Amino acid sequence: MDNRTVANLKKYGFAKGAGNILMPHEVLELKKFINELFEDESIHIETSSNDSSILTILGRNPRIDQLLEKIICHEDVQFVLSQVLGCDFKIWEVLVRRSDPGNTGIGLHQDALGQTNLVFSLSDNLSGSGATAFFSKSHILPRWVVSRISWYPMWIASYLLTPLKLECGDSAIFFNRTWHARLVNNTSQFHDVIMIGIFPQGGLYGPPKWIQDRLERWQGSPLHRLLDASVGTRVMEDGRFQVISQQNNQINESYAMSLESGKCEYRDWDQMLLYFKLIFLELVFFPLRLMYRLLRALLRPLIHLARAKI
Asked: What pLDDT sits at residue 23?
């Protein structure tokens, strides 16, 4: 990760990073630990998002924590994060997501304001099958647009998205504001990625109780400051925590948050071209969507009649 990563992230809303954050033997070691977690029947496997995820992998094994700290605190990673998130950002969650063979994926969406995800791949996935995929440059669009497009169904949208194609040990980063989805895994292999959710100053998040109850594990580590929700935050009325500056208890707007306020720096020409692209797609798919709905409405009585005769 370097200036090129920062430039690509700001331009496209996602970017591939370096592939040398961990040594090859460390990547294999981390991969082995993750496989053991998935095989441990005492650990809850979350499946609500059409995948298999362990929502918190920090605090489960001291060696895993060391390797995760090396990823998060790597100088190149910290450089990129500082360029788009500013200082005093907070880690929300560190999870591992497994895309199983036949996984049906998840549709286009956006996540919380300011949220940025750091990705570390534990599998070779150069096909992008089952990977997170993005509608390029959509981070500069208003948030309401994604809920109104006519080509939302994944059997259409998947052809318009750019997937993260990563080798084992590669990293990537993306703004969760960027329209993204998870593609269908049509291979016979499962693909594991570590996802690290991070919030800049001004971002709102709910720190996992699992982490906050075990903060003493990271005493003296740089991770302690990044994880500790009692420092550099203020509690809001709804119970969420808002990230603030640890120096003056104020909010210094980062690039990620300037996207939310509409103050980010990007060329108006880029946004204009993107709107032209969206208009063209709507001209194609909106009539098709109407025709599909009409045809389905016309055929529904015939289908019910045919079922009644069986």
From this structure: 94
